[in-house]
Write a structure and sequence with these properties.
The protein is α/β, with parallel strands linked by helices. It has helices at 6-13, 63-75, 93-96, 99-106, 114-123, 128-138, 143-150, 231-242, 261-284, 292-298, 310-329, and strands at residues 2-3, 21-24, 27-33, 41-49, 52-56, 83-87, 109-112, 170-171, 185-189, 198-202, 207-211, 249-252, 258-259, 333-338, 341-346. Strands 2-3-4-5-6-7-8 form a seven-stranded mixed beta sheet. It has a four-stranded mixed beta sheet with strand order 9-10-11-12, covered by helices on one side. The longest helix is centred in the last third of the chain and has 24 residues, at 261-284. It is globular.
Length: 349
């Protein structure tokens, strides 16, 4: 893998915001800050077409973020009214939060995968909080964590306004070309980090916009938030979907641009294979079985468990459940419900 966004990387190392940059003629990256988040910013992308501009992932719903976005467009000499389409890789609020404001100010239509749009509808269902609490208890989470994660928005600490995100005007399926003139921009469905996550292959400019699916330095969180989904299997398949892509440069939603996609795909696959081995070893160390919460406390994270926030505990828990489910598919572990709690054990060979 080779870093191509050198100014972005230098800014990252200095813990500063990177500059607005022209990637190639007709394509710009515009950093939009994320308040109180170690990722610091999302990289929004502005792509010119024959009748205006496409904006990918406008960013976090916050006054400072809105100011950065509009200032960034001004730096590119592009008025907001020239934006005709907003494309959303996935509906996490650091990506989709400002889509509604952009649509209101420009008249642009908003497009995303239908599974992301369905998630937005699910956020508003009154039974969602009770289902989330039941799921967390099935995972073996303590009452304190259950209370923290069900008290606010889907992340626990988020204010409700940040989750009042707009629905799509259009849906994009795998392989669809975005309906704008003079630009070949193709949707690539890459579920895993989110059920309807989309990458966008800019065939006109030889670029691949990867959202959170492929990042240059960190591995995106792959979490299960219910008792049925298999996000890790989806993610590993999605990595392979991108292998051999002909784009010369990768434009992620965080950190910095890079080249050498297949090498990075190998790194991400290997990370999850190692996490599978570690989770299997933790489960195998307790013949009586472990809850998902107990496994999450024992596998390796970037910082000790005691130093992680409630939201980070939840992300870790969701990722462990995703890995345990994949191990069950591989018949390496089993899971049985005991008094409403899932108990994971090593499979008997």
């Amino acid at each position: 893998m080779r870093v191509t966004g050198t100014l972005q990387r230098e800014a990252w190392l200095r813990t500063e915001m990177p500059p607005v940059e022209r990637v190639v003629p007709g394509v710009w990256s515009v950093p939009v800050p994320i308040s109180d988040n170690p990722l610091r910013y999302v990289l929004s992308y502005l792509i010119e077409h024959a009748d205006g501009f496409v904006l990918v992932d406008p960013g976090w719903n916050d006054p400072a973020s809105w100011q950065a976005l509009t200032d960034g467009l001004a730096t590119c000499s592009v008025p907001l009214t020239a934006v005709t389409a907003v494309l959303v890789t996935h509906v996490h609020p650091d990506h989709h939060g400002l889509s509604g404001a952009v649509r209101e100010q420009s008249g642009a239509w908003i497009a995303m995968h239908e599974r992301e749009d369905a998630m937005l509808g699910g956020f508003a269902r009154p039974e969602r909080r009770a289902a989330a609490a039941s799921y967390l208890r099935w995972c073996g989470a303590p009452d304190e964590h259950v209370g923290q994660l069900t008290a606010g928005g889907p992340s626990g600490a988020a204010t409700p306004a940040r989750w009042a995100m707009v629905r799509a005007d259009r849906h994009l399926a795998h392989g669809d070309l975005v309906d704008v003139p003079g630009l070949r921009l193709r949707a690539v469905w890459t579920p895993g980090h989110s059920p309807g996550h989309l990458c966008f292959h800019d065939e006109t400019h030889g670029l691949l916009l990867t959202g959170d699916h492929v990042l240059p330095r960190i591995t995106p969180n792959i979490s299960a938030y219910d008792q049925e989904s298999e996000p890790l299997a989806d993610y590993l398949r999605s990595l392979e979907e991108l292998r051999g892509n002909t784009a010369a440069e990768v434009l992620p939603a965080h950190e910095y641009r890079f080249a050498g996609l297949d090498s990075r795909l190998d790194d991400l696959r290997d990370h999850h294979l190692e996490r599978l081995r570690e989770a299997a070893a933790v489960v195998g160390s307790a013949p009586a079985g472990h809850t998902a919460w107990q496994v999450a406390r024992q596998v390796s994270w970037s910082r000790p468990w005691s130093q992680l926030s409630a939201f980070q505990h939840q992300a870790a828990l969701g990722e462990v459940v995703a890995h345990l489910r994949h191990l069950r598919t591989l018949r390496a572990v089993t899971c049985a419900a005991v008094s409403g709690v899932g108990l994971w054990q090593a499979a008997v060979s």
